[in-house]
Amino acid sequence: QVQLVESGGGSAQAGGSLRLSCEASAYTYSSYCMGWFRQAPGKEREGVAFIYTKTGNTHYADSVKGRFTISQVNAKKTLYLQMNSLKPEDTAMYYCAANFDGWTGTCEAVLADFGYWGQGTQVTVAS
User: Which of 69, 68, 67, 70 is nearest to 78 (CA)?
Assistant: First the structure.
């Protein structure tokens, strides 16, 4: 089945930038939806950004609109999350997720829609 591996996490100062990568074992174009979730200690996992890879249509959480950009390079089998103007509240474990099984009617923060998950990469933003 599809494997997802995240990278690019680390520490940044408030206002700084990081770019996360998610390498997939299948072409991103073959998916129905790919995206990023994050989870801070003691909090529920929340959706961050999503892309319908066949058209490039995107959806973002209100908290990251204008700061984060999701993109994919199908030929590289890679999903990206460019994070700019980072805030301490962005500190979390970030997970790549993908739906390669079928169109559910949406491509957004619905946990049950994603059958494939990476192991996560930690992002820490200093105050």
Answer: 70
89 backbone dihedrals φ, ψ, rounded to 5°: -70, -10
> Which residues, in sequence order, are bridge partners of residue 123?
10, 92
- 12 three-class SS: strand
| Residues 51-101 pLDDT 10s | 999 999 999 999 999 999 999 998 899 999 999 999 999 999 999 999 999
Q: Which residue type does 29 have?
A: Y
Reading the block at residue 76, the tokens are 């590289």
101/26 Cα distance (integer angstroms): 12
The pLDDT-based confidence of 119 (bands split at 50, 70, 90) is very high
Instruction: Judge whether 121 and 51 are in contact, CB under 8 Å.
Output: no
User: From CA 98, how far away is CA 65, in angstroms rounded?
Assistant: 21
